[in-house]
Amino acid sequence: MNYKIKLKRIQHFIFDIDGVLTDGTVLINGAEFQRTIHSRDSYAIQYASGLGYNIFLISGGDSAHVKSSFESLGVTAVYLRSRDKLKVFNVLKEEYQIDAEDCLYMGDDIPDIPVMRAVGLATAPHDASIDVRAVAEYISPYFGGRGAVRDVIEQTLRVQQRWLMDHAYHW
Hints:
The chain has helices spanning 3-7, 39-50, 64-71, 85-96, 113-118, 130-135, 148-159; strands spanning 12-15, 27-29, 32-34, 54-58, 77-79, 103-106, 121-124, 138-139. It has 171 residues and is of the alpha/beta class.
């Protein structure tokens, strides 16, 4: 089935953080890790959230600063220190009463594969690991941390005719 047909059903976006929302580079500054996120990715997150889509982040990493930064964009929930991402996905499915077929997941490395196999649409940034690329139904032309998240959100909203609605022109 063409992935664009599956985009019509998507109501929930689930993203890994490192390698998807960031480029995977971690700068170590004392005890704190520093990461960057592309402004177009953050814009797409807050835009989709404003339209009522759920945005979930599941990461093996841990940073209170990362969590608060994403929550300020309207992310529904951030799950950190997630050693078993499929278990976390099953918990959030139950907690938010969502159907896996309505979920798009974007991951970049091996720990993401079980969730990718469980959702309605599995996606990956262009620079994802070869194993993830083999599972993904759609591979973005954009790298992680460089617009891959914006790409899948924008495509979903365009297919659903919800892109560039009135509130799109405001942060």
